[in-house]
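User: Teach me something about this protein's shape.
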Amino acid sequence: MRISTKGRYALRVMVDLSEHNNGAYIPLKDIAERQEISQKYLESIMSVLSKAGFVDALHGKGGGYRLNRPPSEYTVGSILKLTEGSLAPVACLEREKNTCERAAKCRTLPMWTELDHLIDNYLEGVTLGDLACNASAGDYVI
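Assistant: First, the predicted structure itself:
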């Protein structure tokens, strides 16, 4: 598993929205400047987040983006799964049903399955609220 730029930037944007969460819509330009990310690239990420219901979008004058629920209700796992698709450490675990013809005799499958569960449990246990609170302490760097 390797998290792409898209996934990392989506997390940065969501943390930014969390830290500036006052109910107002935040212009994409402001987010892009604070995060030092191309506004054009952020548009594609925000489109994904908006379509999935992770953020509210308002177009036009006074528009921008905002979280539509408290930061503590967003998990890092849910954001990464949305932007990355799968976080599975090996291809045979990327789908709900393992269709690998070697699955029944694979000596390493239990290890990969456990790693997959560890990754998922960890990332589902970290919220935007955790990241925003710890950002000032320097505990997390995204």
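Now, about its shape. Residues 5-88+127-135 form a domain with the Arc Repressor Mutant, subunit A fold (CATH 1.10.10.10). The chain has six helices and two strands. If you'd like, I can walk through any region in more detail.
User: That's plenty for now, thanks!
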